[in-house]
Amino acid sequence: MDKTIITIEVQVAAPVQKVWDYYNKPQHITQWNFAHESWQCPSAENDLRAGGKLKSRMEAKDGSFGFDFEATYDEVIDHKRIVYTIADGRKVETDFAEVGGKTRIVTVFEAESENPVEMQKGGWQAILDNFKKYTEAN
After folding, report:
1. Where is the Activator of Hsp90 ATPase homologue 1/2-like C-terminal domain (predicted)?
2. DSSP string spanning 39-86?
3. pLDDT tens digits, one per residue of 62-111
4. What's the predicted TM-score (pTM) here?
5. 5-137 fold
6. Domain spans in the chain, listed from the N-terminal domain onward
7. CB atoms within 10 A of CB 28
8. Residue 26 predicted with pLDDT over 70
9. Which of 38, 67, 108, 132 has the most CB atoms around its CB within 10 Å?
10. How far apart, in whole angstroms, are the C-alpha atoms of residue 126 and residue 106?
């Protein structure tokens, strides 16, 4: 069966060093890693190296639903590229490029089969948009 690939992107008005730190440090991840203001990310751990793990908890603020996200890093090139495999086996690649004092982030990931592709793209894009908003405001 062919894999469905989804691409999302954003341009953040900040240098790549700041974007990299805000994207990867747990104290920042918990501030932006959710698609809607009715959600939260109460915890995050990040061992940013090949073979290291990324773990985060996402929960509805009303306690009605939550899940753990876990992935293992396959490749990390500081300030440029992150590749990881989600616990369910799907691959995710994120590239960072500084362009004129701004940073372009492009994430390409394999869709899962339980939810519509547009819903997945919308959710991941909303998280990335939330990251942009948080990073530019701080």
Report:
1. 14-135
2. EEEEEEEE--STT-EEEEEEEETTSS-EEEEEEEEEEEETTTEEEEEE
3. 999 999 999 999 999 999 999 999 999 999 999 999 999 999 999 999 99
4. 0.95
5. Alpha-D-Glucose-1,6-Bisphosphate; Chain A, domain 4 (3.30.530)
6. 5-137
7. 19
8. yes
9. 132
10. 13
